[in-house]
Amino acid sequence: MIACCGIGCFFNSCSEDAATENAGPPNIIWLVAEDASTDFFPFYGDTTVALPHLQSLVQEGVIFLNAYAPVPVCAPARSAIITGMYPTTLGTHNMRTYNGYAQENQPGLGIPNYSPLVPEGVKMFPEYLRKAGYYCTNNAKEDYNFRKLQAAWDASGTEAHWRNRPGESPFFAVFNFGVTHESQIWERGRDPLLVSPEAVPVPVYFPNDSTVRHDLAVNYSNLIRLDEQVGEILKQLKEDGLYDNSIIFFYSDHGGPFPRYKRSLYETGIKVPMVVKFRNNENGGTSDERFLSFIDLAPTLLSMAGVEPPAVMQGKAQFGPYEAGNKSSFIFASADRFDEVYDRLRAVRYGKFKYIRNFNPALSNAQPLAYREQMPMMRTMRELFDDDSLDSIQSLWFASPKPEEELYNLEADPGEVENLATDPTLRDTLVYLRKQLDQWITETNDLGSIPEKELIEKWLPDGDPGQLPPLELMEEDSVIRLISGRPDATILWKLPQDTIWQLYSNPLPIGTRFEAKAERIGYIDSPVLTYD
Fold it and tell me: Which residues participate in catalysis according to the annotation?
């Protein structure tokens, strides 16, 4: 049994020797899986496959039992991770707003590629780490639902690695693993299976069908492949003598790859595995039951690095010198447009209860989505539903109309198949959570009620984003000062021969040949200023 460690112990119980060894800012590594639910991991109770590298991380780290994505799909979830903000506040709640992988976004809906004009002061949080002297790398996914800024990373791409840092600089390194992505269910569907389809458990809301079992076996096989890839990064850390004195996060960007998982506000879609190995394995083998949302990751990481999180962030630092005194009692989540399909749902988790509001009850949760329809399981389930061959539980996700409100007791009904919204004995709970959701919608300025095209017209009044004004340059006291007309823009500079843009924080010596520009989420960069 894994013991539970109290809040705050991770930074307050170090021995004197450990404190000496931990002098200086910590190296921080993120190991990010795609499309993976807690349901399939041995350290959350599923014994179908062994994942030795991740299980070793659990034994030396802390397993979080209530970690959540605020949106059950990647790009909106990543916008929350990188900013510490709710996607519904940012305007990144739809999937996708900015598609960095294609020239067009959703031409069938008339939705172009666009970066929402986020609230004042919102930045990609690695910028603050770079200012504090961290070397920040991302290997390699950039899918933030807005055009990425060059202020965020020293290196981003398949070659990005802490081993490329100058000297012994502290580093923040992100590694993304696509092997567990939804698409890998069909793209690896003919690959050798590493687990027998007959050995996999079938959730109660799926039919016990050969196609379903095969897709489940593909997912378990991909998790084994994920574990091997994670093990390679852990091996490199140990080879470099960095493992013990580093903070390592493992988590998934949202829930699993299947229907009723990804894009769903049920636990299968928003609850994620998360393990954190602290310096010197502090409190290794323990668990933590606090509610932790992706909006908490940015302020937590900054606090761990000794950087005070900016006030604009909606998340709360969970550890470090800037740890928030009041922890969250609620988890809030949203679902809006997924690719070519519109809907709007909101959810709140409190204690053992989950409340979901469906703003468009006439729409089924199983709306045809071209991308998802590539999955054999999805096609089989739809055929079985059309043939009236699914049982009452398996049919729930396909129901039309769906209920306006849903209420679940997650302790008694972890699969969320018994809707208690009409139970008179839980009327007070329903009303309380309904009010909490209404209050969150108002306080966070949830943009989901505004049609997307209206938001686009507001942010792109002439069809294009505005451009930041040219930088102003002042020469005084033998230095050059750079000023942007947009106060919350980030100013970058580099030598003419360099490829990496540096953050401008101090005046440059007169006589320095450089290029400079300003950038901000939602705007075109300012014209490049060349100083000769």
Answer: 74
